[in-house]
Write a structure and sequence with these properties.
Elements lengths: L20 H21 L10 E4 L5 E4 L5 H33 L8
Antiparallel strand pairs: 1-2
């Protein structure tokens, strides 16, 4: 379970002394709980039954979503895309409003 940047490492099957596994697992648990809450709001909680917190060999918390059905994955992808689009639209609106506020004459006919 290692990404291209080396952020995650393999799961902690054997514990090593001096590594804060509990702290890492607790961080993973907070992430899993936050995701579970949003999945429940979206009506997808039952579609991600294996969601759980875990910890890797170097003590980093991870969230394991397990196996999901393709239609649940597509719905989750659709929700993520909709959220990103809404966030981008909000940022664009904020920047447009800021530019208009800073330069009130912009876009107005004298």
């Amino acid at each position: 379970m290692t990404d291209p940047r080396g952020v995650c490492a393999r799961r902690a099957e054997s514990l090593a002394p001096g590594i804060p596994y509990v702290r890492g697992w607790a961080d993973g648990r907070r992430g899993a709980d936050a995701l579970a809450e949003q999945l429940a709001l979206a009506g997808l909680a039952a579609d991600v039954p294996s969601l759980r917190a875990d910890v890797n060999v170097i003590g980093q918390g991870v969230v394991n979503v397990g196996t999901v059905r393709p239609d649940a994955a597509r719905e989750l992808a659709r929700l993520l895309a909709a959220g990103l689009a809404a966030e981008m639209a909000q940022q664009h609106s904020h920047h447009t409003h800021r530019a208009t506020s800073t330069f009130p004459h912009v876009g107005r006919i004298p």
